[in-house]
DNA sequence: GGACTAAACGGACAAATGTCCGTTTTTATT
DNA sequence: AATAAAAACGGACATTTGTCCGTTTAGTCC
């Protein structure tokens, strides 16, 4: 026996944990629910809960895993089927999908960021998590495409930086602030991202191709 | 008696707390030092410590208050004495000063962000803290100046958004990652900020004033 | 079915954060 | 100097996170 399946009891417990967490989160808000309470509600021990999920962030990660997978697929699919479009439009499209996703899952995503692990650099930071890497990579490619269209070479990892900058602006906290603190609509926020990250690039492109 | 001064014993305790915290932070790293330990080291009770500083973030805030004040003054002074320069150059200058400051205080600033309070929008978030407001305001003014130079009107709060975007990219965590995770030098990071936030604006400007 | 092993269990325990409240000290007033 | 109110004190306590380890259970092999 080389690779064992997840044990039946373990699988059942995970379902119970996820369901209990979801219910409690909905009822009392993510921040107000302790791990202890989730374990109690699910009828499992502390250790059982913690062995599976090292912290609330891990748990949230699993809670949004399905939706994240779908998000990832949507983005990948969009990129494939829009391959013929201009990279600017595609950047705009991806940004729109990110914002839709954040709008949908903002509360859980915010917890992820806060409880996601170390602050120190290296593995364990958000910057090395698969979701971050995935989106960062998508942005890097798009930016490189845009630069290529404009015949502007990429100065040693410039696109890498810009992708980080975009990701930073996409943080759920800021979205919260714009959406509810300042009362902007989702569409208004998308428009701002477009104006700043896409249209400026587009302007450059127009000028560069003259 | 209308306004009382801070009591003598309280003032002394605050000094002891700050000094103890600073020493312990230096010795063991900010994350490794508990509030309990700081209280013990300072020879005061838990309650005394917590009444003054609601959490470690508050304490760090006080620890960097002096340096923040100086930073603020440096920025204000720079803006005054560079009033004749182009807004692009001034934006670059301010960005440089921010990065210098982050580089200097990265560890404490990172704690501030993590432990700074609520995630929910409204007062209590980073976005409403005086330091954030101050820098955000500085960026808004500079961006408006740039737009004015280019004869581009500011579409309803566009500058506000861009300022948030810049602030987001200035988060200590990302700086850490670039600096130590990816091994970039401080100057390289400054160069990236300049290239993305200043030179692109400058390119636009050149084109717009043709 | 019996036995063995790896995985999972769960609750006690440790450590940290943050609160509460009876007690002490400072300070202004007389 | 006595007094009283305001402010500060401090440690016990509650809550939460996270760990440890002896015990139980599912899956496999015979």
Automatic annotation (TrEMBL), chains A, B:
Protein name (record): TetR family transcriptional regulator
DNA-binding region: 34-53
Record keywords: DNA-binding
Gene3D superfamilies registered for this protein in UniProt: Tetracycline Repressor, domain 2
One GO MF term: DNA-binding transcription factor activity
Highest taxon of the lineage: Bacteria
Positions of the HTH tetR-type domain: 11-71
One Pfam assignment: TetR_N
InterPro entries: Homeodomain-like_sf (IPR009057), HTH-type_TetR-like_transc_reg (IPR050109), HTH_TetR (IPR001647)
PROSITE patterns per the UniProt record, alphabetical: HTH_TETR_2
């Amino acid at each position: 026996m080389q690779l064992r399946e997840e044990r039946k009891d373990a699988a059942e417990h995970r379902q119970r944990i996820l369901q209990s967490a979801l219910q409690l989160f909905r009822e009392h808000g993510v921040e107000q629910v302790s791990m202890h309470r989730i374990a109690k509600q699910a009828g499992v021990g502390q250790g059982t809960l913690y062995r599976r999920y090292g912290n609330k962030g891990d748990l949230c990660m699993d809670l949004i895993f399905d939706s994240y997978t779908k998000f990832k697929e949507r983005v990948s699919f969009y990129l494939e089927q829009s391959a013929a479009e201009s990279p600017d439009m595609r950047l705009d499209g991806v940004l729109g999908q990110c914002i839709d996703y954040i709008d949908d899952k903002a509360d859980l995503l915010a917890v992820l960021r806060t409880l996601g692990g170390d602050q120190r650099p290296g593995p364990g930071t958000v910057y090395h998590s698969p979701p971050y890497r995935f989106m960062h990579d998508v942005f890097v490619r798009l930016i490189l495409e845009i630069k290529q269209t404009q015949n502007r070479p990429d100065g040693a990892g410039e696109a890498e930086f810009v992708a980080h900058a975009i990701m930073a602006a996409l943080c759920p906290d800021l979205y919260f602030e714009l959406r509810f603190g300042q009362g902007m609509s989702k569409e208004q926020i998308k428009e701002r991202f477009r104006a700043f990250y896409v249209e400026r690039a587009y302007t450059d492109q127009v000028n560069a191709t003259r």
